[in-house]
Write a structure and sequence with these properties.
It contains 22 helices and two strands. About 55% of the residues lie in helices and about 0% in strands. The protein binds a DNA duplex through helix 18.
Amino acid sequence: MEPNPILLSAQPQACSHPAERGLEGNSSPSSPEQGRGLPSPWGQMPSSGRADRGWFGDEHVQAKRARVETIVRGICLPPSPRGPGDARAKGSVLDLEKVPERKRKQILPVQQVPLQPSPARNQASRKGAPRMRDQLHQLKQQLRCLQDHILQAAVPGAAARGPGCLEPGKGPLSGKQRNGCGPGPWAADSDHHQGSCTDISAAEKHRVSEVQHLSKELRSLPSGAQALLEILKKELTRAVSQAVDSVLQKVLVDPPGHLPQQGRSFQGLVPEGRGEPSPSGGGACRDPHVLALPRRVQPRAGVSLGNFSLAKPLESPGTRSIPRSFQGPTASCPSTAHSHIQENPIASQLLGHGLNGHWSSGPPQDPPPQLYPSLGPALRPWVLSQPFTTAGPESRPLLPSVKTEQGGLQAGPDALPFPSVHISFEGLNPGHLKKAKLMFFFARYPSSNLLKAYFPDVQFSRCITSQMIKWFSNFREFYYIQMEKSARQALSDGVTSPRRLVVLRDSELFRTLNTHYNKGSDFEVPDCFLEVASLTLQEFFRAVSTGKDSDPSWKKPIYKIISKLDSDIPEILKSSSYPQELFQG
DNA sequence: TGACCACCTG
DNA sequence: CAGGTGGTCA
């Protein structure tokens, strides 16, 4: 118990204070600066978003028009059925939408069967002229909605949409963006969204006029063509949805081109603000030896302790220790600097849909060295993050989204080509579990109130609360077991002084813990956790080595000590959208 | 009595 | 990781 007073008092401060200040200072998400303050991450997105918009706004309209022309041309010819490899396939029109067209060809011939002109049909068609307008109008709206869906998925926060499109709650996304252009839970970068809004509305007008023009053209067609128009209508709808599918498919299949870039550029920003010795650096709280925490992923060559590899006594600090300041931003406990980073909703959506591999495997697109020098801080966790901390720290953001999301969940699954993962379930989902595990790095004994604050998208009931508390109980159990095991191992390895025991990032103990709480290592384990772990280890060692473990309740004092070492949890973990990025992690 | 905890078990 | 149990505390 001797060195404890120092450690105990200093550590929590090192961890918690910066967390609070940093976060509260940075968490005014509505500030436009924030979006701009992060040029690189968003430098990518907006452009890709606009590209998508362009695709829909122009190219696709062109495609529509081209198809109309094709069909009109076809009207002038005998409506003879076409073979699968018909001439249309050679027309330039098809180049605009190769994939959808290919699919459509299989459908078209079938649909043309009822098209055989018959007098009765013609009559009906003539009467149907006004109806046709309605249908076209309907079609127009469908197009718009589809476009909006895509834009929402592709452009962060492109929530702008013409009135009267989707009813709220129809489709998973809809519930998320009831704020119009404003950044909803889904999109915190108000900056770009406002741009998107205007762009979109302009594009929308353009689309509307295109459609009106189209309908005029169609109305002037020979009556025999009316039936064809019906086909055309259906075809357009289908084409659009196919286009949507293909675009999304492309995005889903080819995310590395977009997503990691965002992450990468993002990473460069974080270290700048807070390069210097993390809070505890001044920390004065600990034996300088204990501070020597080598970077992780270091070659294990330095491990000189024979079979004691779970944690390493500081035998050769000279070779292994790295100045704390060198560890930069990663090293400190509360990774507050990340909280203001704006991430891309689609990225996280995509992540949530089985693309995690791209992240956990990282390297192909690893950040340029200059962004985080020397094995930079593994900020991947934050790359994955989607900090929709759009509300102030205390404002319990996103409460409104809960019920809507649940509704959206029921209505949603088939509204998009992929299921919605961000949706909050009645109970706890794997994302919540993952998040809870990450929270464990900061708090071993979170109160139920704290849990409620950090899971704003969970509707807490007695059952849910106790389940989550049970999670932490299980986490602790595993943690203490590992600690005791390591302590005993150290003892049997001949370690004599607990002060020389420290949990290092390249130690086996760390690896075990990291695997348990942070599988995939997509979260940078905060140093404060290492410090607490070291202290825990020391306490266990002390108890074991002094024979206190003969007392049936010998662990209780240790528990008491550790329970006082909780740190503040970074605000970023408060985001209800946070679990979703790690959903399948 | 309820909340929370550690421990044991499957 | 969840269920069950018994202990502690307010």
